[in-house]
Fold these 2 entries.
Entry 1:
Amino acid sequence: METPSDALTPARRRAHLRRMFDRRVQSEWNRYSGEPRRVLHRTLRERFLRTHLHRVSGRVLELGPGPGRFTPVLREATRGRVVAVDLSVASLRSARRRVGLRSDPVPVDWIEGAAEHLPLVSRSFDAVVALGYIVCFAGPDGPALLREIARVTRRHGTVVLDFSSPVSATQEFFRVAVAGRLLPRVLRRPGYYFVDRVLEEGFQPCAPERWGNFEFRFYTVPEAHEALRRAGFRVRDTMSVAPITAHDNRIAASARRSERTWESLLRVEERAGRRSGTLETGHGFVVAAVRN
């Protein structure tokens, strides 16, 4: 993947992300709570994690834990020691406080740092988890980040990551624009708001005046698989997150009314999410892979 000409330097990108996520701790927590569709996005990711980590008993690395939304799931699923690395000190403090409220005795080590330059020993983890589109936020440094993940992962170790595709991101962008009654404004100037660029080049530069609040690299499923292969991983499973319900809260709200209907929706979404024609249409897609 070539570096776009208007990409930030790695140091400036990390500094910008650190400032941004220091300010967005609560909003990051809310990203997977509140509306039923948000709960659906979280629950499907949690189930995917449990499916692929239930046999892991050693050390687990979590990159970008944010306020600690998925950290308890890692502790429960693996029963191994968790090391969490994040750029944002504010996020680490929030995660430590939230996770510390639980009685689970499995320890967590909290480290401030960049995923592209991990202060960790090579081949020291049995599993690595990077949710929250960590690879996408790395922009053109995504391949370097994946190589660093490969460096610290033991042979046959498991990695679980999620990616945002150009199609799913455009769906979400249009949904937000409709909610804010701004879609006509966007569609009158789609190029100005990077819609064409996201779909054609898979890259959004940082331009806040055009609603591009951060630099971001989108991935198609073949691109994500190829990037993982080049880094030394073999893909085992790929699933679109809620391809049916990702952007329609009415379906999730109706299913949420009873445990039985909610479980049925989860199973339908998991089946649909693994069909090749839906992989880029949900709330991003999750990938499980093994270190060669």
Entry 2:
Amino acid sequence: MQSQIKKSSSTQLALNKHPDMDTIVVALGGNAILKPGENGTFAEQMENIRSTAAQLAGLISGGKRLIITHGNGPQVGRIFQQQELGLRAGLPEMPLYICGAMSQAQIGIMIQQALHNELVLADCPRTIVTLVCQTLVDPQSEAFSSPTKPIGSFYSEAEAQKAMAEKGETWIEDSGRGWRRVVPSPEPLGFPEIEAIKSLLAQEIVVVVSGGGGTPVARSSRGTLVGVDAVVEKDLVAQAVAQMTGAGTLLILTDVAGAKINYRTPGEELIGRVSLKEIKEYHRQGHFIPGSMGPKVLAAIRFVESGGNMAVITSLENALPGAEGKVGTVVVR
């Protein structure tokens, strides 16, 4: 990292002291865009997003203001593969953070169009905007000395060794399925575009932001921004956006009904409505898998702890009752 880059103290997250009960940050999981077993064609992704948009349109028709975040794993993985093919043809390679920005725009325009159409059909027109958003991180974070976030497709050991030797990347063997590149996953500190997000929200505009955790950047001592090759955990970014915009609810939509304790054991149990103190204890005990349910639960804890009214983890098809705290894992103070 360049020595002139430093952590910006002005972007630390503030407490959400007066949450707006009509504002919801919706964090869409990967199944909202691409389901297991699909090839990832445009038609498949668009149909999945259309179904997702129907759920979101129901929330907006019910009087809620939405900020939408989403994953980008499969899409940015395909961009990497396209780059590899391009390299063989002599085309220049783009940095990781630029590939992330590409995927933000790609997925954002699909959500934008699908949600617009669903709202027209519901006779509830709204303007929807995709904001390619940057996420401020601390380049001195320990995350940069110990990369942990797997990205992209699976490769052979020989291919991984070649990438490590030629590019200085870090690769690991992943669960017997092959080798994957791992990159740093630092904490989100803030967003250069946060005032734009707030302004759009105040005008009743639906904002799609921070796809895949946003484009990681660090701020220099002069205030300029420098892109950083990292991936910020998308659920923690959704929590930070919710906190900084004063949202009342953080709604994390995934492919399961909610968080569970004693997962994959005879004592497995779905967590319903739960106090902040109780869910923190479950998290401390290690009930939630890192990289899967773990970040979702941590995001819920942080949001409610910072003053948010309610955080809900539930399935996509339960978006409407989930936003009312009627289903899923509902974290309250």
